[in-house]
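Q: Okay, next protein. This is Nucleotidyl transferase domain-containing protein from marine sediment metagenome. I've checked the sequence twice, so it should be correct. Can you predict the 3D structure?
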Amino acid sequence: MKAIILCAGRGTRLKPYTDTYQKAMIPLFGKPLLEYIINGLIFAGFENIILVVGYLKEQVKNYFKNGSKWGIKIEYVTQKKANGTGAAALLCEDLITNNHFFLTWGDILVPYNMYKRIYETYLNNNQHFILLANYTDDPHKGGAIFSKDGYCVDIIEKPAHGKSGSNLNNCGVFIFHREIFEVLRKVKLSNRNEIELTGSIKLGIQDKRWKVRVIKMKKDQFRGDFGNIEVYEQLRKDARWLKKLN
C-alpha cells in the first residue's frame, strides 16, 4: 500500500516562519516536521510514499530526494493550485496501483503507533475506509465526527463554534479505497470553493453507504497540529513531546 502526505500548502497561519520554510519543513529539534511524519509511516510499515508538493516544493524535494536515505521510495506530485485536499488526492490517482491507500495531512503529527494501528486495522479487518479521530472540546477548527457503533455516520467540516454537538475531531489520517476518486470527481465544491476530502467522505456515507471505521485516539494522547502557530511555538521550545511519539 502506498501512503500519501499532503504538503503543498503555503501555511499562512504559520507566518512569518512560512515566509522562508515550506510548512512541512519547519524545523523541530534538528529535523523538519515532515521527517517525523515519514518516520512514523516507516514505523507502521510503509515503504512507498507520495508527497504532494507545491509552495516551496524544492525544499522538500532537495531534502528527501528519492527516499533512499530512509530505505523507502518517494514519489512527487505537484499541486499547482490551492484547490483543496480532495484535489490533491486526485492528482495521485494514477500512482495508486492497489485498491487502497493511506493518506495524511502534512501538518499533523500523531504517535507512531497510531499510524501502525490504522494500517493493522486495515490488514486484519478488511476495512475499506478508516479515519482517525481525536477528542477535543470543540472541533470547529477541523471536522466534527459523528460515530455510531465504531463507524462514522456524518462529518461536518469546520462547524460553527460551539454548535457541532460532537467532541470528536477529524485528525487528518485515513485509509481509503480507490472508489474515493470517483466520488471526488462528483462532490460539490466547499464554501471555500475547494474539493474537500471530508465532503467526499460525507457523500460516500450518504449515497454509497460506505462503512467508514473510526479509530479514536485516547484523550491524553499527543497530537501536534502544526497548522496552529501557538502550538508550533510551544512544541519547538519543549522537547518532551518527542517521547510521546514512540
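A: Here is a summary of the prediction. The mean pLDDT is 93. The chain is about 25% helix and 25% strand.
Q: Noted. On to the next one.
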